[in-house]
Amino acid sequence: MSLVLLQQVISMAAAMLLLISFALLAQRRMLTVLHWFAIHGVVLAATTALVAYSSGDSELYISAAITLALKGMLLPWVLWKIILQMHVHREVEPLVNIPVTMLIAAALVLFSFQVAIPIEKLSHLLTRNTIAIATASVLLGMLMMITRRKAITQVVGFLAMENALFFAAIGATYGMPLVVELGVAFDVLIASIVFGLFFYHIRTTFESLDLEAMEERR
Amino acid sequence: MNLFMLLLAAPLVGAALLAVISHPLRAAWVNVLASGISFIASLGLAFRVLHQGRIFAFSDWFFLDAFNVFLVVLTAFVSTTTAIFSGPYMRHELAHGKVGAGRMRLYHAMYQLFVFGMFLGQTSNNLGIIWLLLEIATLATVLLVSLYRTPGSVAAAWKYLIICGVGISLALFGTAVLFFTTSEVLGHGNAALTWTRLYAVAGKLDPTVMSLAFVFLMVGYGTKVGLAPMHTWLPGAHAEGPTPVSAVLSGLLLNLALYALVRCKMLVDAATGTHFAGYLMMGFGLLSLMVAAFSLHRQQDIKRMFSFSYIEHMGLMTFTFGIGTPIANFAAMLHMTTHSLVKSGIFFTVGHAAQQMGTQAMSDIRGLIRHHPGIGWGLLIGTCAIAGFPPFGVFTSEFLIFSAALEQYPWTVALLLLGLLVAAAGLFRFVPNMAYGEVPDHARQVPANMLPVYVHLALALVLGISITGFLAGWYEQAAALIHGGGA
Predict the structure, then answer these.
(1) Hey, are the CB atoms on A173 and B180 less than 8 Å from each other?
(2) B172 interfaces chain A, CB cutoff of 8 Å
(3) Residues paired with residue B56 on neighbouring β-strands, in sequence order
(4) What range does the domain containing B25 cover?
(5) CB contact B215 to A (< 8 Å)
């Protein structure tokens, strides 16, 4: 593939990631949110593999494989299991209604493009166009955590943010050194175990995964 | 090198042993022993560093200089006294059925693993590794905060997990941005995240990108330090967990986050040649001081109140490191020492007081001096010490902070003074009521071990009266190091 084509494909993948972040915010049904989250992981892994191919950096292939296994398959599957087992209410309950959330999200995207200008000017990498998009996705993940009432949707927001961070590192620098990259993957794994434990604790102590029940008991 | 191995091995072996020892008394002693050994090793390392200068271990993956060896000694000391305190305290919790035998093993093993992580983080030469250890330590302490599995503790731990999770993710983003510019200079590899290499080439890093990275690192690590407005997780996490966990959280983990922030500031200062990072730290520090001082007045829970005092002092330290002159760095490090000593002493006392009275609500705690003179006086004297009364060490360090601020930014002194006075007024609004008065009916006699408290307060007193030449030389060396960008 020619470099121009590669660059275009990578930019398109980045744009898809951003669109999926919007889709995560717009969904009203919990199971659909999880589907989109899984797709988010798979697109991320595919983009990583593309960058690995274009830069010839073999360490990135390892990252791509780990991402696919962990974020594309394992985590969505675990969350799906939890939803089924705990009979969580099927509807996502946003604190701010969805159209307003979308408007805020659009403003955040503009803001990230503004912030990313100094970095993009300096970079010589093929992936430099993606930095702004990655920053935007990080902020959208955060927005999702803030505006949702259920513990599970908060966690999906958190993990989507983690995905975007990973993508930012790939876009800005072709990824962090492998030691750090492996550490982060390990860390996401531990975090999801802790999250799983917590769903169980919250469930047994509050008889609901609704965070409002938790706030009231303070 | 051998001492360094001993420092790391003691908590690791300790954790492995504690995971299988179920006898509570024996486990408590192993816990003390493991921490004690690493304390002795840390003292040995400190002498070596001060005489020979910076040392490396495992090629350049780990390093010790005057700045971080100071934190290692402090960590080892506080973890040892906390282990001594935690013995009888946790046996009482076990006897009252608040935790089971299995969870006691989890508690002890996690405690030593946590200490191990702290040592690794403080001595690591790699920015990415420090980030990892902070995140893993956060996850480990989340499980310790929710140890009692009460609704309050689960809610507090969830808040802790989510807010610190986001914070620490932002720090990772900051690290990635930083790596973006450093990898252009040092190549795509671990070297570009290694402190000692980075300081050598700091002048070549791009100032704009470094400033951007620092904003993210500031918010990220600032969340972990407990700076306002990202501090909301901290009071709950301190109040709901077991007291030894509050003591190590405040005494150790958050110091590590502040340490990481100061290291980043050294680098950013050298790269930008401006005072941008310092101003940011001063702003966050002052804001935290103010918010905490006023929030302190509205508390009902004794541990929550002291957590706000904690935020106040962390804000003060961040502010002082932000000033960045050698005397300010000296003052900030001295304050870190005296505050860690006094505040963990207070948390021990508060833990005992809550056990005696069977509650953490300040309105139900009365007549501590009559009930148990050791605890009552310990609380009163500790409060005087933390409020900055002479002759305790906190007074000395706060005095130095004022002189440093007066020298550079005189207008901040008025704000600092206001914050400290409001906070002291808040402390003295509640503490005398708890210390004096009649003993309420719900009080009970529980064995208490006040030795660690006395040791901490005595050391704080000694630091307040005279700082020995050895210690002053050490701090001066470290202060110059921070000021000069680590070279």
Answers:
(1) yes
(2) yes
(3) B63
(4) 1-125
(5) no
Site from A114, A180, A192 to mutate, B interface, most B CB atoms within 10 angstroms:
A180
Residue ending a domain, choose from B77, B97, B125: B125
How many angstroms from the chain centroid is the CA of residue A212?
24
Question: Of B20, B47, B165, B3, which Cα lies nearest the Cα of B477?
Answer: B47
Please return the burial class of B98, using the count of CB atoms within 10 Å of its CB with bins 0-12, 13-18 and 19+.
middle
The pair of three-digit structure tokens given for residue B461, joined into one six-digit string: 């007193």
- Residue B281 inside a domain? The answer is no
d(CA B277, CA B218): 9
Identify the domain boundary among B125, B140, B175: B125
**CA–CA distances in Å: residue B36 to residues B30, B41, B84, B253:** 10, 9, 10, 19
What pTM was computed for the model? 0.90
- Looking at residue A79, its amino acid is L
Residues in chain A with CB shorter than 8 Å from the CB of B142 are 194
B19 part of a folded domain:
yes
Tokens of B401: 């902070």
**Structure tokens belonging to residue B229:** 């407005």
H or E segment to which residue B159 belongs: helix B151-186
Interface test with chain B among A114, A176, A215, by most B beta carbons within 10 Å: A176
pLDDT tens column, B297-316: 998 899 999 999 999 999 99
A123 touches chain B (CB under 8 A): yes
The CA distances from residue B143 to A215, B148, B322, in Å, are: 20, 10, 33
* Length reported for chain B: 487
B132 touches chain A (CB under 8 A): yes
Residue B470 lies in a domain: yes
| Count of structural domains, chain B | 2
Residue B234 falls within a domain, yes or no?
no
- Comparing CB atoms, the residue among B161, B176, B209 nearest residue A169 is B176
pLDDT digits (tens, 9 = 90+) for A26-71: 888 888 889 999 999 999 999 888 888 887 778 888 888 988 998 8
Task: Dump the DSSP string for B364-382.
Answer: G---HHHH-HHHHHHHHHH
Closest-CA residue to B210 (of B234, B182, B238, B168): B182
Q: Give B158-190 pLDDT, tens digit per residue.
A: 888 888 888 888 898 889 888 888 888 887 778
